[in-house]
Amino acid sequence: MCALVSASVAVDLEKGKEINGTCAACHSDNGQGGKKGEYPRIAGQQVKYLENQLKSFRARTRVNIPMFPYTQEREMSDADVKDIAAYLNGIELDTQMPTYTGKEDALTKLLMAEKVMIIPRAEGDLEAGGKIYQKQCASCHAKSGRGRGMFPMLVGQYTNYLKRQVDLYRAGDRAHDEEAVGGVLNTLDEKQIQDVLAYLTSIQDPKE
Question: What percent of the chain has a predicted confidence (pLDDT) above 70?
Answer without folding.
Answer: 90
